[in-house]
Amino acid sequence: MNSKTIQMPREVHIGPNVLDEIGKICKNLRLFDEALVVSGFHTFDVAGRQTVDALESSDFGVEVVKVKDASIESVEMVQDKIANASVVLGVGGGKIIDVAKLASTNAHSYFLSVPTTASHDGIASPMASIKNDKGSISKNANSPMAVVADTGIINTAPFRLIASGCADIVSNYTAIKDWKLAYRLKNEDYSESAAALSEMTAKLIINSSDSIKEGLEESARIVVKSLFSSGMAISIAGSSRPASGSEHLFSHALDRVAKKPALHGEQCGVGTIMMMHLHGGDWRSIRNILKTIGAPTTASELGIDDDDIVDALTMAHTIRPERYTILGDNGLTREAAIKLAKKTEII
Ligand SMILES: NC(=O)C1=CN([C@@H]2O[C@H](COP(=O)(O)OP(=O)(O)OC[C@H]3O[C@@H](n4cnc5c(N)ncnc54)[C@H](O)[C@@H]3O)[C@@H](O)[C@H]2O)C=CC1
Ligand SMILES: O=C(CO)COP(=O)(O)O
Ligand SMILES: [Zn+2]
User: 321: CA distance to ligand 2 center in Å?
Assistant: First the structure.
């Protein structure tokens, strides 16, 4: 039996105003002197400035770099700025955290994940989804040393972002079905524990769907903890397989074809409805759960043209050819894609 290394965050700080403690958190982790804060242009105002102030009040020298996308160029730009920083902090949404995560890995620096929204399950995972002109590449990275999730800040984000995070978790259902299929048909490595954790996390969100409401700090806390658990399933598996299957391939394809893509989790949620149908599962219950949460369930709710949905369905299998899913090696024909999207009332 070959050996396996599982990386997980050492600490998770979750609650209102934990961001004010980030300087002390870094010192307790034996991180000193210089820090690099990576943020988005908007999220710097949301939490980046506050992060800098808290670090400086703990005698850190702080440099700031702002990025706008999750491209390899952004990763390299951040990497070049790490220099003497003992720690890199990603303060923002999924793209910001992924860029900071991969840049710090490449520069052999420590990384702290400071999510400003609960919209994706990359806050604690050891993966970074980097975009290129062909789509999205899931790259191995180091898990964050710590996650500092200020639910006071996360709770003030537009509720659409939290609903998107819930949809990203619900998508674990079809991801696991695809993973089991690849295990049976292609003898792909499969982890029962990672799959069980991933499915349990999705079940938790489904069972809480009635109580996840806008403006409730408790809702933000429930979703952050679920996103964290989903990230742990990715850690145990050593890949994004427990949380990323055919529904994610559809979302990554949409990112390429849509004029204005929706949020990652929103697209994955709609993809889950259709892929659950392909798996012969209860797609209507997935749709009802997403409706209860307040996540999109149709092309028009995503703000995406019907043709783009069909185009993304027909090219999804090409996004990551090595990842076998219900889409098979040749994917959907255009006619089958139209039929699927209509049957599930996406278009
Ligand atoms: N590495 C991993 O394991 C995973 C990575 N991902 C990646 O994460 C990305 C999706 O992340 P998202 O956060 O959904 O999208 P995003 O990072 O593209 O955008 C988030 C948006 O929300 C805004 N925002 C963030 N916090 C806010 C706040 N408190 N108030 C107001 N606005 C706020 C940001 O300015 C930005 O416009 C995708 O690239 C996806 O591939 C998703 C899941 C797992
Ligand atoms: O989005 C993810 C899990 O929710 C990561 O998946 P990818 O590996 O498809 O980028
Ligand atoms: Zn996802």
Answer: 15
Relative to beta strand 146-150, strand 110-115 is parallel
Distances (CA, A) of 146 to 99, 230, 344: 16, 16, 40
Q: Residue 248's closest CA among 193, 326, 336?
A: 326
Do 137 and 176 fall into the same domain? no
State whether 270 and 296 are in the same domain.
yes
206: tokens are 């489904």
Same structural domain for residues 146 and 202?
no
> What type of residue is 87?
V
Report which of 192, 335, 316 is spatially closest to residue 251, judged by C-alpha positions. Answer: 316
**pLDDT digit string, tens, across residues 91-121:** 999 999 999 999 999 999 999 999 999 999 9
Q: What is the pLDDT of residue 132?
A: 83
What are the structure tokens assigned to 174, written together?
A: 């079809």
The closest of 132, 135, 144 to 91, measured between CA atoms, is 144
Tell me the pTM.
0.96
Would you say the CB of residue 138 lies under 6 angstroms from ligand 2? yes
Residue 313 falls within a domain, yes or no? yes
Q: How far apart are CA 121 and CA 129, in angstroms?
A: 11
State which ligand 2 atom lies nearest to the alpha carbon of 249. Answer: 9
Pair 67, 89: CB distance under 8 Å: no
Indicate whether this complex's ipTM tops 0.90.
yes
Q: 91, 136, 142, 161: which to mutate for ligand 1, most atoms within 8 A of CB?
A: 161
Q: Is 279 annotated as a binding residue?
A: no
Query: Tokens 């019907």 identify what position?
Result: 306
- Domain, as residue range, for 241: 159-343
